[in-house]
């Protein structure tokens, strides 16, 4: 009798076995946790600051709205102070880029940015009267509910420099701007609406980009920014609600210190398997 023909992992030839047949060597190629990352606690604590910084920015925006609604701060003061801080940040941003030899991939100049700023201010102030009447037919409770939902979406979908399907910088920014428009429509004058929307653009569009630049090019900026924003946010919330400040501080500590320890403690339970059933990957 002829020796039994050795089975091959092919489908174009009849080998006298079902198509889903595998031999005893099939699992020899199985591998476990090939791409598992080993995390260090303090590195994870440091990186968690990206999340708490964005949450702090959202809380600061809400506190500023409360100040505006209570007439505790004039819209002119908010616009001037935020514009000066934005200008300082713009200069620092370009100084860092120049000192680190970062090539400018586009042909935009300071004059182009200035014209864009003027156009935004012109359109923003011109459309402010429209914002004041945009949501007249919607109840205030509904406006606040939509605002809360949009700000939560901003934190969830914000670009934290992570490769994940949930990340969407455009969705995050649009949600924040929509929330600012909703809140601006509940303020007293067109100046209030204009200052609120302008501040929203600065803190949700420009501020995150500035933080990313500092994190990438300035040593220890991540830790310093996290601590500074956390303390400033807690103090500002305390001026409105002491309970809110305590809750924010506890959440800040939980995200910064407890969640990283929780993540590392769950790493031993990771069990990803790889084998011949995976899609083929062509390597050059």
Automatic annotation (TrEMBL):
GO terms for biological process: GPI anchor biosynthetic process. It comes from the Eukaryota. One of its GO terms (cellular component) is glycosylphosphatidylinositol-N-acetylglucosaminyltransferase (GPI-GnT) complex. Keywords: GPI-anchor biosynthesis, Membrane, Transmembrane, Transmembrane helix. It is found in: Membrane. InterPro entries: Plno_GlcNAc_GPI2. Its main location: membrane. The keyword 4Fe-4S does not apply. Pathway: Glycolipid biosynthesis; glycosylphosphatidylinositol-anchor biosynthesis. It is a multi-pass membrane protein. Belongs to the PIGC family. This is Uncharacterized protein. It comes from Owenia fusiformis.
